[in-house]
Write a structure and sequence with these properties.
364 residues, 68% helix
């Protein structure tokens, strides 16, 4: 027999001997069960099945089919209240935040992939430039030419060769003059020794000794002027002009890259325009514009350097040619004072013979 429970009206549930509900009380059981649940009870707190009211599990309140009933089996699911739903949603969101994947704002770059991408770009650029050079040599490809700038570059290269020849000849003259001065000094010492040992030819040997020593002294002065001329021309040729030619090489490389990407863009524009070729044309246009800006910048740099080089070259060579002429003229005229005045004019200091040699104390 069912007994009254002072706690809850839902405790009054008639069951059969095997623990199953009677058919006549199916609908009243579901109604009373809904009333018995507390307000706001969530799915994570209670699960009640028809096999026992007191069994507490997490999940859904459900009622299974009842044997002996003529009605079709039914299943009722109790949905949680709005407060429980919001609480479950908050717990699920926190759980998802804790267990979800971590997304970084800045993607971590792989150094190996960066190097591989650099190698790929370099290989592609080298291939395009090589193809452009071969096409130009075979007469099949077109090249961009700045007639005025190209003429200035050709003149600069031709002048460099001529200046290198002058430098080589001046170095040869310096070497020969050094040997002559050394020979004159030795000859003067020999004449001076004989003037002391030959009394009958004392004056004659003395005159020749003084002459050779004077020639050796003037030769050393001329040698200092020539070496100063060589050093200045060497700086002009191997540093100033070479630096300008290095910029010219960079300009020529930029010109080849510009023509290579220009040719690619022209070939793509001549082809069909569809969904596959339009992105390639747009990318090729961007690369062409980038190399065009680089080419224009290098051309401007070469023009500026050629202008400054011409001004510097005229100034340097003017002073050095005046020095060389005055020194040679004074030496062969025997004008020692004019020769020394020329060196003072250009602030040239002669090195004393043997000044660089270490003393006997340093040798010890």
């Amino acid at each position: 027999m069912a007994q009254e429970s002072p706690k809850n009206s839902a405790a009054e549930i008639p069951v059969t001997s095997n623990g199953q509900l009677e058919d006549s009380h199916e609908h009243s059981f579901n109604r009373d069960l809904k009333r018995s649940l507390p307000v706001g009870l969530g799915l994570s707190e209670t699960k009640i099945t028809s096999h026992g009211f007191d069994s507490t599990k997490e999940g859904v309140v459900e009622a299974g089919p009842f044997p002996g009933s003529s009605a079709s089996p039914k299943s009722s699911v109790i949905s949680p209240s709005s407060a429980a739903a919001s609480r479950l949603a908050g717990q699920g969101g926190r759980a998802q935040q804790k267990s979800g994947p971590v997304v970084l704002a800045d993607e971590v770059k792989n150094p190996a992939m960066e190097k591989l991408e650099l190698v790929r770009k370099w290989s592609l650029n080298t291939y395009k430039c090589t193809r452009q050079i071969i096409s130009e040599k075979l007469g099949r490809g077109s090249r961009t030419v700045d007639l005025e700038l190209e003429a200035q570059i050709d003149i600069l290269r031709d002048n460099k060769k001529k200046y290198e020849n002058i430098l080589k000849l001046a170095q040869t003259l310096s070497t020969q003059l050094f040997q002559m001065v050394h020979t004159q000094r030795q000859l003067g010492d020999a004449f001076a020794d004989l003037s002391l040992k030959s009394l009958e030819l004392h004056e004659e040997f003395g005159y020749n000794a003084d002459t050779q020593k004077l020639l050796a002294k003037n030769g050393e002065t001329l040698l200092g002027a020539i070496n100063f001329f060589i050093a200045s021309v060497n700086t002009l040729v191997n540093k100033t002009i070479e630096d300008t030619l290095l910029t010219v090489k960079q300009y020529e490389s930029a010109r080849i890259e510009y023509d290579a990407y220009r040719t690619d863009l022209e070939e793509l524009n001549l082809g069909p325009r569809d969904a596959n070729t339009l992105p390639k044309i747009e990318q090729s246009q961007q690369l062409f514009q980038m190399h065009k800006e680089k080419y224009d910048k290098m051309r401007n740099d070469v023009s500026i350097k050629l202008k400054f080089l011409e001004e510097n070259k005229v100034k340097v060579l003017h002073n050095q040619l005046v020095l060389f002429h005055n020194a040679i003229a004074a030496y062969f005229a025997g004008n020692q004072k004019q020769l020394e005045q020329t060196l003072k004019q250009f602030h040239i200091k002669l090195k004393t013979p043997g000044a660089d040699a270490p003393s006997w104390l340093e040798e010890q």
